[in-house]
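Per your request, structure below.
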């Protein structure tokens, strides 16, 4: 029987209640870990690795406000607003300093947290570095990210979302995982585009340049693979672990290897 307690809870914040998945070991020997997801998903993406990472540290995977089971903010937040709320959520569990694991939008929030709440941060592990050009942002918007969804009775909009999920899945990845990923997108409702809107408006290049905390980047072969490699020039001191055969869903497909790589990134920064 695992000595790690797995549970879910809600934390009250200025943006309403934030839903959290928690792994709490009997004894922690490493700093607590805050897991921040991509848009428009939820902390569900971390479920396969939560217990593995939580065998020797407290792990909290949040649903960013407006996503998953967290309350929706009344107006579109800036990325810094998400950061401030999630830093407060971390503080409700432990003083820290915290290791931060960010995935896509979560990578931006992680870097912003290191800059503006640096005393609460120990190390950063980033899954992708969204160093996007304006042309690439425009293409993502054309695909439907960062703008309101327009539904239709024929289901074409729903099919378009499904095709986006399939587009960047691991080759041969389980369709059941893809279906759950689509459900996450739908759960974010008509405000799910707010996460990408905030991310596209955030100056991630400037933030990454300023990060002074130990950091490492995991680069799966997904929609941000080429953008992430720009970090080699921008921050040659931050190691990048290339996993070109991986894409979205890799934590569900390869939970043991993914957990081992993330743990290594957090322990050594490489």
């Amino acid at each position: 029987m695992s000595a790690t307690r797995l549970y879910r809870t809600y934390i009250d914040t200025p943006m309403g209640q934030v839903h959290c998945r928690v792994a709490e070991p009997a004894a922690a020997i490493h700093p607590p870990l805050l897991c921040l997801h991509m848009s428009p998903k939820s902390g569900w993406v971390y479920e396969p690795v939560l217990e593995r990472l939580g065998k020797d540290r407290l792990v909290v995977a949040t649903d960013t406000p407006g996503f998953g089971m967290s309350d929706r903010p009344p107006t579109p937040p800036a990325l810094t607003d998400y950061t401030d709320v999630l830093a407060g959520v971390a503080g409700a569990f432990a003083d820290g300093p915290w290791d931060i694991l960010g995935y896509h939008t979560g990578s931006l929030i992680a870097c912003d947290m290191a800059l503006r709440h640096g005393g609460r941060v120990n190390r950063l592990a980033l899954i992708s570095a969204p160093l996007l050009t304006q042309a690439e942002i425009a293409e993502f918007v054309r695909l439907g990210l960062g703008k309101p969804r327009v539904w239709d009775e024929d289901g074409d909009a729903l099919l378009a979302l499904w095709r986006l999920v399939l587009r960047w899945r691991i080759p041969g990845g389980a369709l059941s995982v893809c279906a759950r990923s689509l459900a996450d997108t739908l759960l974010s409702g008509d405000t799910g585009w707010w996460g990408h809107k905030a991310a596209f408006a955030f100056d991630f290049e400037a933030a990454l340049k300023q990060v002074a905390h130990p950091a490492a980047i995991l680069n799966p072969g997904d929609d941000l693979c080429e953008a992430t490699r720009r970090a080699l020039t921008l921050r040659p001191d931050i190691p990048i672990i290339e996993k070109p055969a991986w894409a979205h869903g890799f934590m569900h497909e390869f939970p043991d290897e993914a957990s081992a790589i993330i743990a290594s990134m957090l322990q050594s920064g490489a």
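The chain has one domain: 5-268.

Regards,
D.
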